[in-house]
Amino acid sequence: MIRESKPLRLVSLFSGIGGFEQGLEKAGFSTTLMCESDPVARAVLAHRFPEVEIAPDVTKLNSIPNCDIVTAGWPCQDISLAGGMKGLRGDRSSLIGDVFRLIAESDHKPEYVLLENVAFALDLHKGESVRFVTTQLEQLGYRWAYRILDTRYFGLPQRRRRLFVLASLHDKPEAILLDGIQGEARSNSPEPKMVGFYWTEGNRGLGWSPEAIPPLKGGSGLSIPSPPAIWDRHTSSFVSPGIKDAERLQGFERDWTEAADAFPKGTRKRWLLVGNAVSVPVAQWIGQRIIGARTGVDDWKTVPHSDRLPKAAYGGPNAPVTELSVTSEGPAHPDIANLSDFELSDFYPVSKRAIAGFTGRFEVAPLRKNQEFLQDLRRYLSLPKAA
Ligand SMILES: C[S@@+](CC[C@H](N)C(=O)[O-])C[C@H]1O[C@@H](n2cnc3c(N)ncnc32)[C@H](O)[C@@H]1O
Q1: Would you list the DSSP string of 227-284?
Q2: Which tens digits make up the pLDDT trace of 24-47?
Q3: What homologous superfamily does CATH list for 9-186+278-323?
Q4: Element (H or E) spanning 11, and its range?
Q5: Which of 88, 96, 214, 360 could bridge across to 207 with cysteines, CB 3.0–4.6 Å?
Q6: What's the 17 CA to ligand 1 centre distance in angstroms?
Q7: So where are the chain's domains?
Q8: Which residue's alpha carbon is nearest to atom 5 within ligand 1?
Q9: What distance in Å separates the CA atoms of residue 155 and residue 168, rounded to the nearest whole number?
Q10: CB atoms within 10 A of CB 5
């Protein structure tokens, strides 16, 4: 176990705009190396972490400096529903192999490895990519634990379920990461003042999120970002957050990605980068749990083994996989913030054209319909001036 008072040293691979770095630094870590291939993301990192070296390509890195933790939110396009669903066979998601290569070849293996991906990784090809990850970690001598964490429980009004895998050589990652997993299930507020949804959807789902926005989306460099919409029940209006509020909804400070404005299509790029990032307070919470790590938690309730991967589990070299029943995707003491209290400061009305398209799809879709919502959509469309 690492118990020095010096800050724990972080090497971050696939750094993006630094969600892990920012969160872990807030918890007391210090970043020693970042690695990011996208020049626009690199410009953001250089602006925000001017002291830290940024390598341009994980596949070309021969080694990493000695450190206490390696983080990697490895590219998820091949795993996400929006991508090709090739899983680890996809060129981009298979880059996780380089993370294990670099750890295997390092003089002193880092005490911790922290990985992140979309929650769907647990379902795609029966969780093949997660099994690959846990097997590789075990072969390197790591004990591991994984679970889904939802940004909604970390003080930000954004629903964002992401898979986190934490591995440790000497600590018990399950004691660190699985805090609160069997906590009280929380239901949505019955009378939300605001509801987030995706106006671009409406056929099979709409991302209905009482007092929160649905997950901000990143995607590939080619796709056009689509900000979510917010229905304000008190004013019967529909707005979308601007990029500065989107940054805040991920836990970054306003204008965190402003360095991207110097590039062509800067604003579009900012949306993609913010939508791909790790939410800062989630990373911070994991960092705080690592720093305050205590061991000896052995009383998790196990559930029978099934063909599919469970929503949370832990294991290690020569140890049986223990599956857990999950009632909460937040910590033992969740911090639930309401969108109506978030004080959005950068937002704009959703165009009537967008609402018209959404309403047309929604009206005929086989979805449960909130009548007040439908009335407000129609009222918005009948307003005399373009909204
Ligand atoms: C899911 S995002 C990571 C986001 C990051 N955790 C954050 O908080 O912003 C994956 C990142 O990996 C980068 N990437 C893809 N291939 C890479 C490579 N070969 N070397 C370094 N970075 C790469 C992408 O440009 C993208 O920014």
Answers
A1: --EEEETTTTEEEEE-HHHHHHHTTPPTTTTGGGGGSTTHHHHHHHHHHHSPPHHHHH
A2: 999 999 999 999 999 999 999 999
A3: Vaccinia Virus protein VP39 (3.40.50.150)
A4: strand 9-13
A5: 214
A6: 9
A7: 9-186+278-323, 194-256+339-382
A8: 16
A9: 27
A10: 5
